[in-house]
Amino acid sequence: MRRVHALAGLLLVAMVTTSAGMKSYLGHHVLSAQAMSEEQLQVLQNLEHQFDVLFLREPTPRLSTDIVVSPEDLNQVMTIMREAGMAASILCSDLQSHIDRERAEIAFSRRKRIMGSSMDYSVYRTIDEVNAVMKGWENSYPQLVKMKALEHKTHESRTVYYLEIGTALDSNGNSNKPVIFVESLTHAREWITTASLIYVIDTLLKNFHNTKFESALTDFTWVVIPVVNPDGYDFTWTQNRFWRKNLRFYSSQRHCLGVDVNRNYDIKFGTVGVSPNCTSDIHHGLSPFSEPETQNVRDLFLQFKARIVSFLSVHAFSQLLLHPWSYTTPNTSTEVPDNLQQLKIMGNKMIQALAYNGKLYRMGTAYDLVGYAASGGSIDWALAEKPGIYSYCFELRPQSFWQGGFMIPATEIIPTGQELLNSLMTMIQNL
């Protein structure tokens, strides 16, 4: 028992050591404001280039925007917003306290696991631990799981892995099964995405012989990239909890680091909802597919393209199910996907299934739901590359910062995973 307690103590020390070099958000406020006009929207967008601010939600005309503001800039930012006619409410007066609480919860969960109390999948895992989980599945279910490396290493020289999940043959002895393509954790700070996906995969594997789930692995092949952006994900554990992008390095003088991976696909690249400024959280990169992360998704998609029937991108937060096109607005284009009606019919069934635990999800395009369009996204590229497939972006729990935002408690992993699993099962039952 003494040895177990010693191990737990070492782990807690390691957690403190890991977090010691992290960006501090001590005294940073989280403000909530909503732009009611184009002029006010521009005021909010300009804040990113004027001050040390961070958008937890990009400014839109239909949803309130959550803005992290440093204590040094708080008065000026509040004055600018007030002069623009916007009322800002304070959601949090010390964001670091929320980060510290999350760290303490992670340490406590890990301590209980070491002491023998099973926490199942109600715990957030580092990138190395996620990779170990994947390897464990391959070892435990060799007839169902293959773990493979993708070709393009990240800017930090990490290997990105994907899974092929399912039986070799379907119930009719056919090996040419339809493919469900899933990619997750494109945006580094969205921890709930991969955690929920781990729950989904583990449930399918453990219950393979349950008639409720058997057809999911027998009649379909699942091609899954659990962590598209491992560099950024690791960065959120070691340097900056709210980092969003990858780790492309531009210039130390300009503090330029990172590309928004979900603005880097070759679909209306660089046209809307993006920034050429490399300091921006929505910087689209140098050119389409300039990033190893998008190159990996592209190449894997093309490898399975003939068999893909659905492309799913898992994000958080807001409790939405988005379908293409994400780059259009009523003012810029009347273009719609050829299979729009099928996307809506299926999507409505999927959001009903997402209400598994009573949570409300909404379905539509990005502009329909939040008044915000963005080009270069994965679901748009996938549908353009293979018209007719069911292409969606999940925005998982929660709805707001007050409910946890990107730091949603680990106790929410299983219920979020249940919602995601129920929605996926509903989709494949209706394909």
TrEMBL record:
Pfam family, one: Peptidase_M14
PROSITE patterns registered for this protein in UniProt: CARBOXYPEPT_ZN_1, PEPTIDASE_M14
Signal sequence region: 1-21
Superkingdom as given in the UniProt entry: Eukaryota
UniProt GO cellular component terms: extracellular space
InterPro entries membership: CARBOXYPEPT_ZN_1, M14A-like_propep, M14A_act_pep, Peptidase_M14
Chain ranges of the Peptidase M14 domain: 123-431
Name of this protein: Carboxypeptidase
Gene source species: Rapana venosa (Veined rapa whelk)
